[in-house]
Amino acid sequence: xxxxxxLAEKPSQAKAYAEAFTIQEKTKTYIQLKPDETFPDGATxxxxxxxxxxxxxxxxxxxxxxxxxxxxxxxxxxxFLEKVSKGKWEQFQAVKKLFQQADVIVNAAxxxxxxxxxxxxxxxxxGVKGKPVQRLWINSLEKDEVRKGxxxxxxxxxxxxxxxxAKARQISDWMVGINASRLFTxxxxxxxxxxxxxxxxxxxxxxYLIYQRHKEIENFVSEPFYQIEGLFQAExxxxxxxAKIKDKDxxxxxxxxxxxxxxxxxxxxxxxxxxxxxxxxxxxPKLHSLSTLQSVANRRWKYTPSQVLKTMQKLYEKRLVSxxxxxxxxxxxxxxxxxxxxxxxxxxxxxxxxxxxxLKPNKRYVNNSKVQExxxxxPTKSVPSEKKLNGLSRDEQNIYREVLATTLAMFHRxxxxxxxxxxxxxxxxxFKSTGKREVDRGWKELFPKPSKAKQEKEAFxxxxxxxxxxxxxxxxKESMTQPPKPYTEGQLITMMKTCGxxxxxxxxxxxxxxxxxxxxxxxxxxxxxxxxxxxxIEVKKNIVSITDKGxxxxxxxxxxxxxSPSMTAKWESYLKKIGNxxxxxxxxxxQTHQFIDKLIKEMPESIQNVQVRSTGEKKSWNDPIAKxxxxxxxxxxxxxxxxGCSAYTEGCKVxxxxxxxxxxxxxxxxxxxCEKKRTKVLKGFKGKKTFSTALMLDQDYKxxxxxxxxx
Length: 711
Prior knowledge:
The chain is α+β, with helices and mostly antiparallel strands and about 700 residues long. The chain contains 22 helices and 26 strands. The strands form 7 sheets. A 7-stranded mixed sheet has the order 2-3-4-1-7-8-9. It has a 6-stranded antiparallel beta barrel with strand order 10-11-14-13-12-15.
């Protein structure tokens, strides 16, 4: 008899796996599967609950490291050790016991470096050694995909390399976060700063790029420039055109008018010298990666990047879309085949009907060589019924329809439009007018129509003939140069991906291009949430602005590698080498140590010119309420409208409401829930009647009523 134990990342993932087979028994800590073709002796699925295991904190190594003191820096343990996360002991012990009993262990956590980290960190802390480990590698939670994945388990060779990569990233981020945050905070407190700064390897350069845009806008001096604009009246309508001059000096523009014997606002005659018409075809957009979906959803519905990821995760767990944390815009021929098979059903689901242009794969969308761990975000084979679709939340419907429309678009006709350019001469001075006319909406039929204002911007030109005489009135048009616009929250994702465009060094540009900028597809939204929580930026009506605290951070890190996206990119580039077996985890950690030593030595001088600002925060505002029950590094904080975890960088999404059933939840109640998992019986909840109940945390860290508790 072979005892197979499968570790999922979280309970919802374990449940999805179990539903692909026949369940024999469910308990609080595992699910037992009945024997079948895949598992002749059955199998046991257990799970993590967030991170079961975390890196030890400074004071776990030395009690004196709990106090923030400059003379203690750098804080670098001889060996980095792990511990069971607070509140996770029971589940960890259950996993440990199952691992000890197992003949084969299967890593079924998410297929990325963090999934590898979660699995191997748990395995290492259980002390279980020498047992065969296999890897589940799937992109969808659909039942047939889950069964197929378990029937074709992979070796753990690549997984172990990804674990080294993830552990190198986790340890170096720990070292930078612990040491740089204390270093900068303590030096600034000497200058009168009464709060603390949080410094991070990825979050700090991200804030600095927003600061750079702020400085560009702040230092921008608007200047006038002048052009000659003509208003023309043809037989079939009027149109506007511009002469080929644009100058800051109005006198030069006037001189050109004089040279051609032209006066402003006088009735003149013009001749249509040339009409140029071109029919242009626009192919449908590439399939979505997470970041393109986040950008589109922010532009269309003002959704935050984290809101999009959260919604995508729900759709993934409902088996409606493929794996959400992908950076790929391509699919393989396997996915294309099932999309073709379900094409009619997808069209019915969207309430559209069109004849596909081709049912053969097109390299713009289908390219096996471009797909590595994950393919693009597409709908799964499970096409939702109208009832199921209507049962989704508004956010889920919007995001699902966007994914579905983008996927269907690759089968649709091109968008075709006619671009017209008219050259009109007035006293031999040429004016150019451009316009656009839709010929065939093609794939654009699948998406919402643009606003009227946007349509009007694309100037419609009347029908004119070569040699036609038109009425003309000219004037010198004055315009002002415009500063760069602040980022929207959706543009932050794009900015983080493409920050290579802001870097001068060619080698750095190439590295940034290779690693796709700052952060990863899975972490960018959480980085943005972290810098919002830290009060470095604020977002109002989707416009991002930097706060006084953010400006102070940027002034403090200016000139150091912490402000440089290039540094982060070089780190990420080396991390990828570790994942590919070409780099060393020990070397990476050693270089991080050297970087911190350099920072400690150079930092006092670099901080001299920093102006300490009032951050507008009460000292107690960011004080931790309790250790996060779900993740290794986060603390629960008061975040104005709710309580939430600070560790968005690690992807933790734990949050608690401030009011529940008409009752305000105090900080003490939240602290008790985080530390003890239950409160005493509380009065004053409101339903149809007022009632009393205790509160408890369930396995997904949601607050539930506990009516069984009597005191």
